[in-house]
Amino acid sequence: MSRTHRLIATTALTLGTLLAGTAQAQSWQLLPMLNDPTFKLEPTIALTGARVMPAQGSDASAWGVEVHVNCGLLQSPDRRIRTHINLTRSDESGIKTTGFELSPRYTMPLPIAGLSVGVGPSLAAFKVESSGTSQTLTGIGAAAGLNFHSGSFYAGADLRAHATGEKSGVDTDPVTLGVKVGFSF
Question: How far apart (Å, rounded) are the C-alpha atoms in residues 120 and 141?
């Protein structure tokens, strides 16, 4: 089993364990954005920097922007699911990569004021360009993050892994370690 598949399996088991008790105690909300008059997006926007470690090719530095909000499609009884949307770009060693990731995460506060941790699945698309060729790879994976909020200030760190498979000789299966700084509204 590859390191990507081990990470995905571990994250899925962790998320399942965390959510199991909560789901039994109360009911989940479908489309709270439309059905719950108290629903608020509570957006956060952050600039990101990351180290991308693909299964094939050289590691690369990436930069981008992330927006995350309270999930308006499905919400846990304790309202802890936040949807992270991440857009990244890298241009290193003759390979340009643009990544788009969508990751709903169950977020739990930690005992230290302002700190929380979130885990969840992730869907991604990576456009990889090199030597006149261009391939778009889709991936499924897992993401985990540590978040810090103080007033409107936000900072965090993420670990994300995606299994993309192979397309025309291109196979990335990236593991990404990133940091981010931004503001909540």
Answer: 9
